[in-house]
Specification:
Blueprint (H helix, E strand, L loop, with lengths): L15 H52 L7 H30 L4 H20 L4 H27 L5 H26 L32 E7 L15 E2 L14 H11 L9 E7 L5 E7 L14 H9 L3 E6 L15 H20 L9 E11 L1 H12 L4 E2 L2 E5 L6 E7 L15 E2 L2 E7 L11 H6 E2 L7 E7 L20 H4 L8 H19 L8 H4 L13 E7 L3 E4 L16 E5 L3 E9 L3 E13 L7 E5 L12 E8 L19 E6 L4 E5 L18 H8 L8 E6 H7 L8 E7 L5 E12 L1
Parallel strand pairs: 1-2, 4-5, 4-6, 6-9, 9-11, 10-12, 11-13
Antiparallel strand pairs: 1-3, 3-5, 7-8, 13-14, 15-25, 16-19, 17-18, 18-25, 19-24, 20-23, 20-25, 21-22, 21-24
Helix pairs in contact: 1-2, 1-3, 1-4, 2-3, 3-4, 4-5, 8-9
Length: 769
């Protein structure tokens, strides 16, 4: 008998939880599975194109970078070198990603290699180019995802009906969205960008105009130009066979001991010489006359070596030669950085080469038959430098007085030139410090120019050598600093331009806020020419423009200028560089005291990016009330300084972006005003408001790049303190209080009675005569 299989028992009726599970499966799980399957199928069709698009973006990016190398081989070989470098980078980065993928096993290996490898390689390249890592990753991810998504969409479209109509529609939408995103990114990178902190043009402040002609206008001398060099320059005939004067190469081996090996061979192959035979090349613009004429040597900074920089100062040469100066733009391009990485700590060599040029000029001035015989006034020599050249010019002035190289006594120095002045344009400082010591500047007049929107030297680095400049021998020396709003680094040199970096970094920089190049160079011409007129030609009538730039306003574009000034007659009351005692001033016997202050401390002043200015100042913060008026005073011992109404009280002030109660600052700040009081021995008080002389400029914020996040990552903060020198003639105090006598001065007071609250930095309090 055959037994029938048992009839299965009917399923029990679903309970409430079971019904819920069925509902979730029916309405959620099944559609999700279907969508996931469709997306997976779409990805299966799209990934080859995505990977190819990603690799295409990577290769195109590196090919373009290759064309910016300027190795001298031509742009096509340079582009090929970029492609080769990209291939190696892709192999390395893609290989690492493939190894990671082998562990994760999440996607096809070709997708990992092409897409994620390209992402890692591009991120690494941007990071090597000094793009902050988070922003480098975000930018690379945007480029790779955009190009990959476009490639993936095209890959699906190429498959046509095989991919399915739904996938085709999604691919078309993806390709269109990617193209739109890429176009927006390209427009942003190609555009000039903007600065949300941009200030309107300043109001022209009334000041007594200078009783002197415009120093930025051409002079009366006819000019000529010639070139001198080694006669064997591979790349520029003006320093080669066309050179009017021949110079002997100089051996800089002892100054560049680390330039050796492959790097030295690569550089020698391009230039045709090594560190043992650096040429002395210069382009000279000079007045056609008997002379003798003061000699001005100018040297460029560190730009791409193959993008020759020495021709970028011809505008200065034409002006200064017409005004009776011999102007030489010195070629030191062979010391500049290049694709192979550049030379480390080369600024000592830059300075030494400058002095070797002066030796050549000393010989020509004494050489019978030389076109410059007897035409050079070697008692009046100035050095001008831009960027690293600015530090090199100051270093050359220091080397000029030394018997040997401060780091190697085997290299003797025998220079001893009469260098009267050094001018630095956006200089760096501390790139080279002999034996770890800052460069001293003594008995040499010094001028420094700095642009607010300088994204190369983004901090006011030239403030440090300005502070170090001293005049122990007295005499006519002076120092001046000029901060130029909306000026960048490159426009002081016509060969460098509006971008302070090469591609791809230049794509990120905002240039919309910059002043016109001609305007920026107009500022340079007026102040550099006025400085040289005052120091080399003895035209002291130009000094007031450095005490107060408003006196030169008729010659300048409408631009905000902040200045500092000090001459050899300055005698310090307090520089705040002492020890721990906040009450002790620099002048022996002088006592500092505060009343009702919310802040009172001395601190090292720092610029953007925590850059130390190597200078201390006192921080004073206050909140004024009806009952309490804050003040800061310096009580003086009996003085034998013969103070008269012709002397000036001098001090430096800088606003800060701080609040005395530590609350975040809000709203636009107005200029701070205060009252300066001088108390005589008999108790008579003379009062002058700060605004009687000029206002204290509020903090100026700057945006360097096209993205706020990139600015914060690269530059840390949007502002840095910029000091202004205030000179209050004692005649103003006599005018305010006729009974007041400066000879018995007993106290200097800063009374914060005209602005309700604020925080300022105070420095360099003293008198000038």
């Amino acid at each position: 008998m055959i037994e029938e299989p048992p009839v299965p028992a009917p399923d029990p009726p679903p309970v409430a939880g079971g019904r819920l599970r069925l509902l979730v499966e029916r309405w959620c799980e099944r559609p999700i599975r279907a969508a996931w399957g469709g997306a997976s199928a779409f990805a299966g069709h799209a990934w080859p194109g995505f990977a190819l698009g990603a690799m295409a973006a990577m290769l195109a990016f590196c090919a373009f970078l290759g064309t910016t190398l300027r190795t001298g081989l031509g742009w096509v070989p340079d582009g090929v070198l970029g492609l080769v470098a990209a291939a190696f980078a892709l192999l390395a980065a893609g290989g690492i990603v493939v190894l990671v993928r082998a562990v994760a096993a999440a996607w096809p290996w070709r997708f990992c290699f092409g897409a994620l490898g390209s992402l890692a390689a591009m991120t690494a390249i941007l990071a090597v180019l000094d793009v902050p890592l988070p922003f480098a990753l975000a930018l690379a991810a945007t480029a790779i995802l955009s190009a990959g998504a476009l490639g993936g969409g095209i890959s699906v479209l190429v498959r046509g009906r095989q991919a399915g109509w739904g996938h085709l529609g999604a691919a078309a939408a993806l390709a269109a969205a990617t193209l739109a995103l890429g176009a927006l990114l390209a427009l942003r990178l190609a555009g000039p960008g903007s600065d949300p902190y941009l200030l309107p043009p300043p109001q022209v402040r009334e000041a007594e105009p200078l009783q002197a002609p415009d120093p930025g206008a051409p002079g009366l001398w006819k000019t000529a130009t010639l070139f001198y060099g080694s006669g064997a320059d591979r790349h520029r005939k003006e320093f080669g066979p066309a050179a009017a004067l021949r110079t002997r190469p100089v051996d800089a081996s002892l100054l560049l001991p680390d330039l050796k090996g492959l790097k030295a061979r690569i550089r020698q192959r391009y230039w045709g010489f090594g560190k043992e035979a650096f040429p002395l090349n210069g382009r000279v613009t000079y007045p056609e006359g008997k002379g003798p004429f003061p000699l001005v040597l100018a040297v460029h900074g560190n730009h791409t070596a193959q993008n020759f920089s020495d021709g970028g100062y011809q505008y200065l040469g034409d002006l200064l030669a017409s005004r009776g100066f011999i102007f030489v733009s010195v070629d030191e391009n062979f010391l500049n950085g290049s694709w192979e990485g550049g030379i480390d700590k080369e600024n000592a060599a830059r300075a030494w080469v400058l002095l070797k040029h002066l030796e050549a000029w000393r010989g020509w001035n004494a050489e019978a038959g030389n076109p410059f015989q007897g035409k050079v006034d070697l008692d009046n020599v100035a050095l001008v430098g831009h960027s690293r050249g600015g530090e090199a010019a100051a270093l050359a002035a220091a080397f000029n007085r030394l018997p040997c190289d401060p780091e190697n006594a085997a290299l003797p120095f025998a220079f001893g030139f009469s260098i009267k002045a050094v001018a630095a344009i956006a200089p760096i400082d501390g790139q080279y410090e002999p034996s770890g010591q800052p460069i001293p500047l003594e008995d040499v007049s010094y001028l420094v120019l700095q642009g607010s929107h300088d994204s190369d030297v983004s901090m006011f680095a030239g403030y440090r050598p300005y502070k170090r400049a001293r005049f122990p021998s007295g005499g006519p020396g002076f120092k001046a600093a000029l901060w130029v709003y909306r000026a960048n680094h490159g426009q002081f040199n016509t060969a460098w331009g509006r971008h302070d970096a090469d591609p791809p970094l230049s794509w990120f920089l905002g240039t919309g806020a910059l002043m016109a190049g001609e305007d920026q160079r107009r500022v340079a011409k007026v102040f550099l020419s006025g400085f040289l007129e005052a120091t080399l030609h003895g035209h002291r009538e130009y000094l007031p423009m450095f005490r107060d730039p408003a006196t030169a306003a008729p010659w300048l574009p409408r631009v905000l200028l902040l200045n500092q000034f000090e001459d050899a007659t300055f005698r310090a009351v307090s520089t705040f560089d002492g020890g721990l005692d906040l009450t002790r001033a620099t002048l022996p016997g002088a006592v500092q005291k505060g009343s009702n202050l919310a802040r009172w401390r001395e601190r090292t002043v720092e610029g953007r990016g925590e850059w130390s200015f190597q200078d201390k100042a006192v921080t004073l913060g206050w909140i004024r009330t009806r009952e309490k008026v804050p003040s800061y005073a310096i009580a003086l011992p009996p003085l034998d300084w013969n103070l008269t109404a012709s002397a000036r009280l001098v001090f430096s002030l800088a606003d800060t972006d701080e609040d005395p109660s530590d609350q975040p600052p809000s709203g636009a700040k107005k200029p701070i005003d205060l009252t300066v009081e001088l108390v005589a021995a008999d108790g008579t008080v003379a009062r002058v408001p700060l605004s009687r002389v000029r206002p204290l400029q509020p903090v100026v914020k700057v945006r360097f790049t096209k993205w706020a996040a990139l600015d914060k990552a690269a530059f840390k903060q949007a502002w840095e303190p910029v000091f202004q020198t205030f000179e209050l003639p004692l005649a103003l105090f006599r005018e305010a209080e006729p009974a007041w006598n400066p000879r018995g001065l007993r106290e200097i007071r800063f009374v914060f009675d005209r602005t309700d609250r604020g925080v300022v930095l105070l420095d360099e309090v003293g008198f000038t005569f």
